[in-house]
Amino acid sequence: MFKYYWYKFIRKIAGAGIKNSTIGFDSKIEAGSIFINSTMGKHSFCGYDCFINNTEIGSFVSIADKVYVGRGVHPVKWISTSPVFYNNRDSVKTKYSRHEREPHPRTYIGNDVWICDGVYIKPGVKIGDGAVIGMGSIVTKDVLPYTIVAGNPAKIIRKRFSEDIVERLLKSEWWNLPSDVLEKAAEEIKNPIEFLRIIAEG
């Protein structure tokens, strides 16, 4: 038992690397994670040992461990993909030329998204509100709201709710509601219709 808590303590004190980023109210980036040029809304978290770059993340988002979003892309239309030909600081020191690469595309992760362990998300992808990304998936294309995807490459498994419920949830934008309304509606978090009724009443 002592070893378990000691390991957790050592892991925590390692801290997270956060640069040029904004973290929302009550949100958390766990130890070992790198968070660069990105934003995260309120009540969201990023687990351990993640890499998040150039990404906008909504509110109420759950990101598990070892998730990679917005990693660097090599120029496949050039003669070579090697970094010795472009203008960056890299693992290799030699530079034969210093050509600028295309701007790094920004990635968007909506509100109330759940991203499971070990997911890779290609730069520039848009993940819709309420989506779920299954464990170990590699996401190369946009994901529609309230859709569950999984696999390599990630494919649609199913919708979380009926089209009518999805439309009403998106229209409600419940993640932007004040805390007192959410506290009332939280009793019906398992029942979408009742939840929607309560927030409609305010």
Overview of this protein structure:
This protein is of the alpha/beta class and 202 residues long. The chain is built from four helices and 18 strands. A hairpin with a 4-residue loop joins β17 (147-150) and β18. It starts with a helix and ends with a helix.
How would you concisely characterize the structure shown here?
The protein is an alpha/beta fold and 202 residues long. Helices cover 19% and strands 23% of the residues.
Structural class: alpha/beta
Largest sheet: 7 strands, mixed
Number of strands: 18
> Strand order of the main beta sheet, please?
3-6-9-12-15-17-18
> Separation of termini?
47 Å
What sequence of helices (H) and strands (E) makes up the elements?
HEEEEEEEEEEEEEEEEEEHHH
Overall mean confidence score, pLDDT: 91
Measured on Cα atoms, how large is the radius of gyration? Answer: 20 Å
Number of helices in the DSSP assignment: 4
Low-confidence stretches: none
Features:
202 residues, alpha/beta, 7-stranded mixed β-sheet, 6-stranded parallel β-sheet, 18 strands
Write the SSE topology.
Layout: H1 2-13, E1 17-19, E2 22-23, E3 28-29, E4 34-36, E5 39-40, E6 45-46, E7 51-53, E8 55-57, E9 62-63, E10 68-69, E11 107-109, E12 114-115, E13 120-121, E14 126-127, E15 132-133, E16 138-139, E17 147-150, E18 155-159, H2 163-172, H3 179-185, H4 192-201
Parallel strand pairs: 1-4, 2-5, 3-6, 4-7, 5-8, 6-9, 7-10, 8-11, 9-12, 10-13, 11-14, 12-15, 13-16, 15-17
Antiparallel strand pairs: 17-18
